[in-house]
Amino acid sequence: MTQEPDVLAPLEPETLEDTGLPESTIEQLVLKILYFRGDIYGQDLSTAIGLKFSVIQDVVEALKLQHHVQVKRSLGMGNVGAILALTESGRGRAREALESNHYNGPAPVPLEQYTALIRQQKLREGWLTKEGLVKACRGMVVTERLLSQVGPAISSANSLLLYGKPGDGKTFLIESLANLETAPIFLPHALECQGNIVQLYDPIYHQRIEEEQPSALTLSVEGSYDQRWVRCKRPFIVSGGELTLDMLDLRYNAHSKIYEAPFQLKANNGIYLIDDFGRQRATPAEVLNRWIVPMERRMDYLSFLTGGKMTVPFEAFLVFSTNLNPARPRRRGLSATHPVQTAAARPGRETSLSAFSRLSAHHAAFPARSKRSSRYRQTLRASRQALPPLPSTRCYGTRTQPNRLREAGCHSHARTAGSRV
């Protein structure tokens, strides 16, 4: 397949204006980091904020002049090599900043900068080829018909409704798409919008591409990109029957006073799979109606606790996997012109024979596994014979059927006793 060229990395801000953040936000972040982490070098402070020390130097100097920050010890290289600490008045200012929120990570990215980069990282037309799709699905048996149905939906990265009977391999097929060769993306640790902080980077769902970290006391720290962003693989996020409509909006943490991004925002520039569609607490029509505006306009609207709205880009490949009849949810929730493509994961006779042929060839190549399985069955049979006998049926008053044993609370023995009777 054609390898997608690397996206342009976000450039490091050279001035405070380049960050897009007000000076008060950087000042509060400096105070909170010093409050939680204690005495640290100026370079460590710069690394924690994700900005060059030259960008935050004026803020640190202003805090020193106001006697909120003090220098405990210096290596003779200016504030970057000095150990900085809060004074008593600085601790008071830090506690005031904590009343707004407890965020003390890398500086957030303004929503405008995030939206611009997400649009740039969108996969271009023609990025997917048939050879690349077959290579990604090499662990399963797929038909030409299924590839012709799934391929255009993946290439357009709009949405896909995949249906089939339980066990037909729907989820495994979508999980295989994570093997597609694509360029890494950049996503911010957090977003800033209307004075609110939205935590976006999640190590559970985002696979970070590790890079060499510079020494804490190295003065010439020149990152290849803005350190407020994380370089990672394109995300693949799965939600099942536990999904509720509340999970698709901002979630406010009353303790930290920080918002957590919903799944579709974390899945931007990646794949978001709603598995077991139709098994959620909400009806299929309600779930589908939630996605009508995002899929048509490629943007989503999220709500803050204060009543404000946040308009974010929607660039996730949305996939529904279900064993329901697609005609019904499509008729109830989507119009016929809605951009949702459907595909049926129904393995036919030839596909099943091909899968069994592969399995037989695999066992023929590894005969020792069959022997181990035979020894396992022999050991299991011997262990069952060595088990103590079941309690006498006289303790239940009569020699009866398994339902009487269940009534007595012996659920684990009911099936065995029933087979013996």
Description:
The structure is a single chain. With 421 residues, this protein is an alpha/beta fold. The chain folds into three domains: 22-105, Arc Repressor Mutant, subunit A; 111-347, Rossmann fold (3-Layer(aba) Sandwich), CATH 3.40.50; 390-421, no CATH class. It contains 16 helices and 17 strands. The protein has helices spanning 23-37, 42-49, 53-65, 88-98, 111-120, 130-136, 144-156, 170-176, 263-266, 284-290, 292-297, 327-333, 349-365, 367-386, 402-407, 411-420, and strands at residues 40-41, 69-74, 82-86, 109-110, 159-163, 185-188, 190-193, 196-199, 229-232, 236-239, 251-253, 258-260, 271-274, 299-303, 309-313, 317-322, 341-344. The strands form five sheets. Strands 4-7-8-12-11 form a five-stranded mixed beta sheet. The chain has a five-stranded parallel beta sheet with strand order 10-13-16-5-17. A three-stranded antiparallel beta sheet has the order 1-3-2. A hairpin with a 7-residue loop joins strand 2 (69-74) and strand 3. The chain starts with 22 loop residues before the first helix and ends with a helix.
